[in-house]
Amino acid sequence: AGDIFQDNAALSNPVAGLVIGALVTLLVQSSSTSSSIVVSMVSSGLLEVQSAVPVIMGANIGTSVTNTIVAMMQAGDRNEFRRAFAGATVHDFFNWLSVLILLPLEAATGVLYKLTKIIIDSFNIQGGNNAPDLLNVITDPLTDAIIELDKNVISDIATGDPAARNKSLIKIWCKTEKITTLVNITVPSDANCTTGALCWVEGNKTLTQINVTETINLERCNHIFVFANLPDLAVGLILLALSLLILCTCLILIAKLLNSMLKGQVAVVIKKVLNTDFPFPFGWVTGYIAIMVGAGMTFIVQSSSVFTSAITPLVGIGVISLERAYPLTLGSNIGTTTTAILAAMAAPGETLANSLQIALCH
């Protein structure tokens, strides 16, 4: 993902940027991750805000692939599959249509760029701190027991640090300490001495002192792959196979469980509650409340993929109608933008304005 992002020549073309955003999101299965990478690239000055806008749009298209995969799980029953697939593609089509309208508009006029620039300039921005963890507090202990990844490596590769190429993404040492020591080295002559450093002659050698920073590993991480000594690719394939297996099993079980729970009277009541509109003349409010619910839920789980994938089987078994799934999906798209804004808040003071600007474009 970092490699794909690094090709700036491709990113200068809006359509290529769009495809790259979609592709990277497809690879990492999370628009939050890819939009955070884009935000950190903008904050490190590698990407212009204008060329990052199509990439963010692409990230939104990539995120709608996950729930389409989820819909496939209900392929056993024709009617369920028809409804689930329709529920999943609501998201795809909304994203595609908004990109078809906004991308040419942005390429021609730069409206998003200009609008967000005005908003940012009107703020007096100070440096921020990292995003709060919401659902991660529950899920992190489990995921960290399986694997811990060094996200800095992805950002370093994307930002073109040559040393990052040979690094592994898998974290081995969780506690490290940097120690700086003074070391004596020989230099050809006095002229090569660092200004302000000690410099002296011993025999026919000129010696000086320089600071050397060493990273000392203190404590190993506690995940399964610490002692595995496997290449990243092997670990990735193992985890991919396992996660797809668990995902498919969970989705099939959820559909079966919901099917058995929602038979008879219970189903009738739940369907009524979820799919009824407010009484006349307030019917129009219902959709907006559903949008707010979708946005709130996505903010809590910090992933629109997770939320829209959770709705898909419910649409499949007919608990949520397609008409109600649409505003929930729209809300989910609004909720996922908070992740990019939180990622931007963590940027250093001097690049905070650019990072916030691309987050606001999103």
Automatic annotation (TrEMBL):
Pfam families: Na_Pi_cotrans. It is a multi-pass membrane protein. GO terms for cellular component: apical plasma membrane; brush border; vesicle. Signal peptide: none annotated. Keywords: Cell membrane, Disulfide bond, Glycoprotein, Ion transport, Membrane, Sodium, Sodium transport, Symport, Transmembrane, Transmembrane helix, Transport. The keyword Iron does not apply. InterPro entries: Na/Pi_transpt. The keyword Cell membrane applies. It catalyses: 3 Na(+)(out) + phosphate(out) = 3 Na(+)(in) + phosphate(in). It is found in: Apical cell membrane. GO terms for biological process: intracellular phosphate ion homeostasis; sodium-dependent phosphate transport. One of its GO terms (molecular function) is sodium:phosphate symporter activity. The chain crosses the membrane at residues 15-39, 51-73, 93-113, 233-258, 278-301. NCBIfam families: 2a58 (TIGR01013). Belongs to the SLC34A transporter family. Involved in actively transporting phosphate into cells via Na(+) cotransport. This is Sodium-dependent phosphate transport protein 2B.
